[in-house]
């Protein structure tokens, strides 16, 4: 079982359409492999819950998932705990809130996102969400394969580099 995953959200422009999609990345802290992602026009706790649930099914639960403070509202529903928070409780995963400006806690998902912006041409030309997801899936598979070869110390993830979105 991995010690910690990090979940973060990014707004991503869809080609020249002027529209945005929201990208949720779930990264394993030890290996830096992307264990899950989702790309949507709008995000909510239910969609993030599905990204987490798919990753849990493939890799098993980590001990904790790190969130930045922007995701606090997603975990707290209008009437208490959201479905995502309940999913974490069901698997005994501890939600951890990052300390602001802590370089050791923050930046894992941002590194993947920066690499994505530099190297993924398929997203630049994507005109719709489906083509963006296909391009993203292919890029993340390649990213994980390159990363896995550099970090063979993660045997549970090294055997399953393929990334699945919802």
Write structural notes for this entry.
The protein is of the alpha/beta class and 166 residues long. The protein has a single domain (4-158), classed as 2-Layer Sandwich (Nucleotidyltransferase, domain 5). The protein is 42% helix and 23% strand. The chain has helices spanning 45-59, 72-75, 83-90, 108-119, 121-125, 129-150, 155-158, and strands spanning 4-13, 20-28, 34-40, 64-67, 76-77, 80-81, 94-97. The protein has a 5-stranded mixed β-sheet with strand order 3-2-1-4-7, sandwiched between helices. A two-stranded antiparallel ribbon has the order 5-6. Strand 1 (4-13) and strand 2 (20-28) form a beta hairpin. 34% of the residues are buried.
**What do the pLDDT scores average to?**
77
Number of helices: 7
Given as residue ranges, the uncertain stretches (5+ residues, pLDDT < 50) are: 154-164
Main sheet specs: 5 strands, mixed
Write down the overall geometry: globular
Count of discrete domains:
1
By CATH, the superfamily comes out as Ribonuclease H-like superfamily/Ribonuclease H
Major beta sheet, strand line-up: 3-2-1-4-7
Strand content of the residues, in percent? 15-25%
What is the CATH third-level topology name? Nucleotidyltransferase, domain 5
Class, according to the CATH hierarchy? Alpha Beta
Helix content: 40-55%
End-to-end distance: 22 Å
